[in-house]
Structures are given as C-alpha cells and as structure tokens.
Write a structure and sequence with these properties.
The structure is a single chain. This protein is α/β, with parallel strands linked by helices. 38% of the residues lie in helices and 13% in strands. The chain has 15 helices and 13 strands. An 8-stranded parallel beta barrel has the order 1-2-3-4-5-7-10-11, surrounded by 5 helices. Strands 6-8-9 form a 3-stranded mixed sheet, with helices on one face. A two-stranded antiparallel sheet has the order 12-13. Its EC number is 3.2.1.21. Belongs to the glycosyl hydrolase 1 family.
C-alpha cells in the first residue's frame, strides 16, 4: 500500500523542502477603492447581478489590506516558511498603462518586509485573474496589446520588489483566465466566445514570455521565475479508441495549449487540428513561440482533482461534469464531442473527487515533460463546510486527511525521482471563492465574515507542525 493511502506510515521530507500557503489579491485584500486602486474585471463581474452566489463580491473580502501584519504573525506562529500572494494589477497600475501608483506598490513593499522580518519567504504571483477593467474595455486577453501591457506591469513590480522577493510567478492558472473567462463565462469578464478564448490563451502565453523577460531585465540573477499552471490529470473512461481520442483532445486543451509553447516552443499539431473550425491561429505571429519559450527556473503545478472523459453519446444530454461551474457554454472549445464523468470516491464541498494519485501522476508527468526543471505544488487544498465549535475551535479532520494524502503523494513522487522543492497549501484563509462567493471555505484559517476574526482550524495546526518538523503528523483515529 503506498504511503498516500496508509496514514500509519511515517512520511518525512527533505530538509530544504518549502512549506507554504497561498492566497490571491482579490480574494482577500478588500480596500478596492483605496490608495488609487481602480476596478478590475472581478470588481465589475462580481457587482453584476446573477454572476456570483448571493451577489457576493470582494469589496471587503477578509480585509487583508489592513490586517496583513496580523496575518503574517499568524503564519509565523504556525511555522510556515513561505507565503505565495498575488499583486493586484489595478492597485499598482490602475489603468493597466503608465506609471505606477506608489501607494499601491508600498502595500506590497510593506507586506514583503513584514514577511522577511518573520523569516517567511515571499513568493510573488503577478497575475491571478484580476485584469484592470480598462484593459478589458480595450479588448482584454483576446487582444495582443494586453500581453505588452503585462510586460510593462511585470517590470514595474520586479523593480519594486525584486531586491527582496526571490520567487516569482508570472501567471496563475492561465487556463481559467482564458477558458472560464472567455469561453464558458463563469469567471470574469464573463464572455462566451470560444474563438476569443483561444486567442486569449495565446496572448496569456505571450504575456508570460514577455513578463519573464521583463522580470529578468530588472531583477538579480538569483531570483527564480516560474509560472503556476493548473495542468490536468486527464483519464479516459476506457481504452477504446474514441475515449482515448477524447482524452487527447482535453489534454491538449487543458495542458498542451500552455505547456506546449512554454516548455517546448510549439503548440500541439493535434490542438491546431481539433480547433481548426474555430480559428486558423493567425494570431500566432512569427517569433511568438520563441518569445514564449523562455527558460524557467521552476514550474508551479496546481492540483485539485482528476478529469475523467469519454467520447460523447450523441443521444445523451447530461450536465457537463467537469467541475468548472454551471454554464450553457463550455470552457472546452471544439470539444462538444467529449463527455466528462464524475470520478468515483469521496468528494469535497466543491463536488471534486479526492484522489491523491492524480497529483502523483501529474508530478511524474512533468518530471518527464521537463527533465531537470524544479517543481513546486503551488496550490492544493479542499473546501469543507467548516463550523466553529462551542469552545471556539474549528475541527476539520476531513481537510487534515486530504492534506495528509496529497502530501504523501508528493513525498512518494520525490522518492520516485521527482524534484519537488515545496508545497503551498490553498488557502491560508477562508475567502471570496470567485463565483461561489463566501459559501465555499478553502482556508486552513477560519474567518468569521461578520467580525473578520481569524481562527486557525485543526488543519492549520496540523500543517504547521508538519512545516516545523518536516514530517507529517499522524492522523487522529476515526471516531
């Protein structure tokens, strides 16, 4: 039995392994109208009736903008070694163009200094889905100019923080930005144009390449430049040729569309063929693939659950069970002939199957896909319906079990030869969970949304012990 399935097996990690937690700006900061910040696409989207559960928005979120010192002190108390956060583009460069707003940059300077003072390494993500609204009004990610604006923004932030923050990620989950934002419309900006989503994917890739070059032009050579991809573990329902072809198509749309140009300097030919009815890819200009294919210092992988697909039954019209929200429009361009299936097993509050083997499989794939490239798990976690007990504590044994299983899978991958350097739990805090509003709690720290009081859950204490000792504490016996 592998250690990911046996909680009695001691699981220890290499001494230099990084134990971190992650957040994103719009989900936690609040202060959306302070110090020069202007609306992002998520401000606009969340204030549009019907787009988020309960009409929830991030105007206050969990007020990290004013409570960051408290939050950093809590990280230090837990024993975390790193903190991955994102920068709000419209807080730093409100129109997406021109000079920076120094008050916006000053917040991130203070945050980085506070982290360093507590011995916590900052890991900076430049873009976690919150495009300045003015850039969306000019066409957004389907327009090539947005990639050039991103490079200018990357240079601004790199100049401001690069002397102190050494770990950098250009983009977080560009798949969500492109396909949930521009194809299915369940994320901001809420557009439903499959051809535009493919243009957006390319321009996000271009933004990564241009942004990586911009960062390296202004930062010390010791700094790491990476990207965080939500690459999918895609499995066919059967081994028949039609199901294998369906899995290949979804693998191209989930993975190859990004790692192809980023890691190998080319899009998969099978992706071009599958999407030829939507686009001739004339937005890929000469030289683009070289610009995108910048050397990486590391690769971030975000993982939650595997995908199970088959060829679609033309007579069946079941809801699309891909875990990416309800919409009449698919986030999978040109994949109407593919069906998604619920994978078996226990599920989180998001309805996502708990399967650590998918994380091990993903790590080993990228160990083969990019040999010699260090890997980080930049997001992994679970939402549960957490409650405060009468004694004021939050007991979440399901999340502890989830973390134990997935961290054990990471350790097994290291044993199998993978160079995994660290793990960032998603998320540090309960927060605004995008279109789900405040109804889904991913945090290791409970937030009372009425008072904004923070209460570390039992999972936070468990994870903190793992971070301090480099070994996974045992699970509590089942009641």
């Amino acid at each position: 039995m592998p250690d990911s399935e046996n909680p009695a097996t001691p699981v220890t990690f290499p001494p230099a392994f990084v134990w971190g937690a992650a957040t994103s700006a719009y989900q936690i900061e609040g202060a959306v109208r302070e110090d020069g910040r202007t609306p992002s696409i998520w401000d606009t989207f969340s204030h549009t009736p019907g787009k988020t559960v309960g009409g929830d928005h991030g105007d206050i979120a969990v007020d990290h903008y004013h409570r960051y010192r408290e939050d950093v002190a809590m990280m230090a108390d837990l024993g975390l070694g790193a903190y991955r956060f994102s920068v709000s583009w419209s807080r730093v460069q409100p129109t997406g163009r021109g000079p920076a707003v120094q008050k916006g940059l000053d917040f991130y300077r203070r945050l980085v200094d506070e982290l360093l003072s507590k011995g916590i390494k900052p890991a900076v993500t430049l873009y976690h889905w919150d495009l300045p609204q003015e850039l969306e009004d000019a066409g957004g990610w389907p327009e090539r100019d947005t990639a050039y604006r991103f490079a200018e923004y990357a240079q601004i932030v790199g100049e401001a923080l690069g002397d102190r923050a050494e770990q950098w990620m250009t983009l977080n989950e560009p798949w969500c930005s492109a396909f949930l934002g521009y194809a299915s419309g369940v994320h901001a900006p809420g557009r439903t144009d499959p051809a535009a989503s493919l243009r957006a994917a390319h321009h996000l890739n271009l933004a990564h390449g241009l942004g990586a070059s911009a960062l390296r032009s202004v930062m010390p050579a010791r700094n790491q430049v990476a990207i965080a991809l939500n690459s999918a573990t895609v499995r066919p329902l059967s081994q028949n040729p039609a199901d294998l072809a369906a899995a290949r198509k979804i693998d191209d749309l989930a993975n190859g569309v990004f790692h192809g140009p980023i890691l190998h300097g080319a899009y998969p030919e099978s992706l071009y063929a599958a999407t030829s009815d939507l686009t001739d890819w004339d937005h890929v200009l000469d030289g683009d693939l070289t610009l995108i294919n910048q050397p990486l210092d590391a690769l971030g992988l975000n993982y939650y659950t595997p995908a199970l697909v088959s060829a679609a039954d033309a007579a069946a019209r079941a809801p699309r069970a891909d875990g990416h929200g309800a919409s009449d429009h698919s986030p999978w361009p040109a994949a109407g002939d593919v069906a998604f299936h619920q994978t078996p097993g226990d599920r989180t509050e998001m309805g996502w199957t708990i399967d650590p083997t998918g994380l091990h499989e993903l790590i080993m794939r990228y160990t083969r896909e990019a040999p010699g490239l260090p890997l980080y798990i930049t997001e992994n976690g679970a939402a549960y319906d957490d409650k405060i007990d009468s004694d004021g504590r939050v007991h979440d044994p399901e999340r502890v079990s989830y973390l134990h299983g997935h961290l054990s899978a990471v350790r097994r991958a290291i044993t199998d030869g993978a160079d995994v350097r660290g793990y960032f739990l998603w998320s540090l805090l309960d927060n605004f969970e995008w279109a789900y509003g405040y109804g889904k709690r991913f945090g290791a720290v409970y937030v009372d949304y009425a008072t904004l009081q923070r209460t570390p859950k039992s999972s936070a204490l468990w994870y903190g012990k793992a971070a301090r000792t480099g070994a996974l504490p045992p699970l509590e016996p089942a009641a």
